[in-house]
Amino acid sequence: MGGKVTCTLGEVKNRADFIVFWGGNPAECHPRHFTKYSLMPKGKHVPNGRKDRTVVLVDIRETKSVKAADIFLQVRPGKDFEVLTILRALIKDQAVDPRQVAETGLTLEQLTDLVARMKRAKFGVMFFGMGLSMTRGKHMNSAALLTLAAEMNAFTKFVAMPMRGHGNVTGADVVMRWQTGYPFGINFSRGYPRYNPGEFSTVDLLVRGDADAALILGADPGATMPQPAIDHLARIPTIVLDPKVTHTSRLARVHITTAVTGISAPGTGYRMDEVPIPLRPALKSPYPTDEEVIRRIHEAVCAKPDWIHANGQYTTNQV
After folding, report:
1. CATH no. for residue 80?
2. Which of 145, 202, 219, 294 has the maximum number of C-beta atoms within 10 A of its C-beta?
3. 286-311 tens-digit pLDDT
4. Do residue 253 and residue 191 come from a single domain?
5. Residue 115 is part of which domain span?
6. Which residues contact 30 (CB under 8 A, 6 or more apart)?
7. What pTM was computed for the model?
8. Residues 125, 126, 128: CA angle, nearest 5 degrees
9. Are 24 and 141 in contact (CB under 8 A)?
10. Which stretches within 97-243 are classed as H helix?
11. Do the domain assignments include residue 2?
């Protein structure tokens, strides 16, 4: 099974009466999320706002978001996939070994109570962050949570949504899905898109040392990726397009300063619920836009002479 059952943040605001934050700390990472969309606002079907909602936080340690939650479930590090698998079994009334549950740091009673609350909800939503998607299990953790949300729809309405990080991360996923049918972890080496997270994901490619060059747009992997990946970026020719100096630009061979999208360059930003927001510039910038730089690089590559393959045959550049 693939895909996800999701909705807009407006639907969360107006309908959600049961909210789960898994592997995220929105109180510090998304400070307006609580007040604008998920916890506090009064909605059409939750007229009393916070009083009409039950909030569950699942994480490996207490964060500032714990104070906003009704229930806090502290999972043992690296055991998120096991917890999600147990929850999928419990919602189908399948037997679960309490000893396996104990290895997750939780009790069978805690998870049974969570499942009962989820089934009683009228509209449930599961927000998940990098604490789930970038720890042991990685994309399999995300897939398990998305599957859990889909299977909950046999009992009540349930959706899932990632808590996206900085920049237009959602926009990148949307464009890649539009162009290839896949959101990330895509390889074009055979002339067509192949999708395999864990093999073709950026972090995995860099940690294994498979990449021999990198072009980075609108991201700062030098500040967020594992140290082996950062070390490899420093070893290979790395080109960064960014309006400001970042950790990544400091280790790059080339840093091209670009205009800031939405401030001095037009564009489209996507909210975490994939709603497009047109951005109109308020200021002018002497720097080119990301689009202009990429177009000029593309034109320069196309203008190069024919390449010679390893077998000695000539071929014309075609993009």
Report:
1. 3.40.228.10
2. 145
3. 999 999 999 999 999 888 876 545 44
4. yes
5. 9-162
6. 24, 163
7. 0.85
8. 150
9. no
10. 98-102, 108-120, 130-133, 139-152, 169-180, 202-208, 221-224, 227-235
11. no
